[in-house]
Amino acid sequence: MSIINHFDYDSYIYTSACIDKEFCEHFKEVVACLEKWDSIVNSAAHALQNDGEAFALALHAHSLFLGAVRLARSGHSSAVYPLLRTALESAAYALLFTQDDDLSEKWKNRHKSDDDFKQSKTAFAPAMKKL
To answer: I want to staple 57 with a disulfide (CB 3.0 to 4.6 A). Which of 8, 15, 94, 114 is the partner?
Structure first.
């Protein structure tokens, strides 16, 4: 019986690539759905390209989505939820910024002072409930 005592970076990358290859070969329908979702998320992000803050957050959401997909396809599913949750939050903020310029300003200023941070938190709680 062989027990792996050392699972280093190269072993992880190799194993992830093998799992990803198997996934793509055996779950073609899922891969097609992921590609469609990617197209939707990417299109939604680029629709905001004239709104700086919203566009940046939408691109961030798209990158996180792609990272989550990559992790899931490589067999590292435990890390997917936090990435998708953060992606959803970034996408929601992007949408909210297109609806309320004041909200965007509060978000940009949230690190200037403790009071600005509190104002940002206070503004976002009801805004998120609207979604």
So the answer is: 94
- How far is C-alpha 36 from the chain's CA centre? 16
Distances (CA, A) of 31 to 16, 42, 84, 97: 16, 16, 17, 32
Instruction: Print burial letters for 32-51: b (CB count within 10 Å at least 16), e (below 16).
Output: eebeeeeeebeeebeebeeb
The span from the CA of 84 to the CA of 35, in Å, is 16
Rounded to whole angstroms, how far apart are CA atoms 21 and 7?
Answer: 20
